[in-house]
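Chain A, query sequence.
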Amino acid sequence: MHGVARGTRVYTAEEIERRKANAEKWKENYSKVMEYKKNGEELIHEVWKLTETLVLMNPDCYSLWNYRRNIILSKLKLPIQPIHAPETPDDSQTKRCRQCNRRIQLNSSEYHSALIISAPHSLLCRICYIQRPKESELLQSELTLIQNSIMQSSKSYGIWFHRSWLLTLFSTTPRLVSSFPINWEHEVALCNQFLRYDSRNFHCWNYRRFIIKSGKISTDSELNFTETKIGEGGSFFGFNRSETAIKQNSLANYSAWHQRSALLTEKIKSCHDDQSKISEILENDFILLSNALLMHDGQSPWLYLRWLLGQLGEEKRKEKGKEVMEICEEILKVDREGMEIGEKGKGEVAETSKWALLTMVFLLRRMGEEEKVKGVLEELRQSDPDRRGFYDSLESGEAVLG
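Chain A, predicted structure.
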């Protein structure tokens, strides 16, 4: 995927047996959790420990993270109140401590030191109350668990959502804010680490957007980061990019382009429709992007180009559109002369030409040049017959290039 070869793992007989044993252990422990849930005891300490073991074995089970969220809420958000023994206690009345699950006789001496939490069927004995984790320790241990789980499965929706949920809880609940101030810069550094492993992990990019917004991280510093990720292996966009960078195909990192567009959208909003300011913000990207289009055959920079054009006012878009048309024509000229076609068959075009032609359709349609649009689409149909239906839809107006 994404141009990265994925090797096939061959397991030894010993490893296969170990994996089978782990699978059986996981199923056994998961059945225990389900049994506790069936009996209405999913908030007890035993479930907390079981789910920790289970998510480390299989972080992709969303239900386990959901149970942990419920337990965290019960540990942190509910007030603790003392219980006073009734004057005539019922000898048969018993309850269980929610942490250690030990049965407590309410007419015993232990009853007088018991503490109840205002949750259904919940009781906390004094020993467990004293030993309960502090709020900051609970957050830190859960963040560590999540980080270890991400190392096991870095593209799991459940894990990334759980981390964002946890940080939202501690950063927006008044009585929790002071107990453990969130280190948003640390979260950014963590994203940097995981994006070094896989720069196109969109789960991590989504989480990064949450961190940037919640932690009020500088937009300019984040724009610099996207520039770094897009230009990995060489200078960003310039003609002097190294061959290594081009081979790494970092210009195809759609997630980095999308992050850049999201950041620029916020800057554009702050301009309050002042087209001169908007043009000034986007001008640098147009200059840099023009070089990228001449050397890369993927769709990401072309899609970003169309987004850039869409942010401009009518006059500026026409002006920039003419410059982009010249770039497209230059690319088509080179491809038609066979300089980049290589061993393409007759009538076929390089990927670069296809995206150049589609961009021309995008621009010509906005210029009202429908006859020219039909000519370009016919060229696309001839050179890329597998997508004939899409080009027909573009001509009829059923499909639109955004």
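The first helix runs from residue 13 to 38. The two ends are 25 Å apart (CA to CA).
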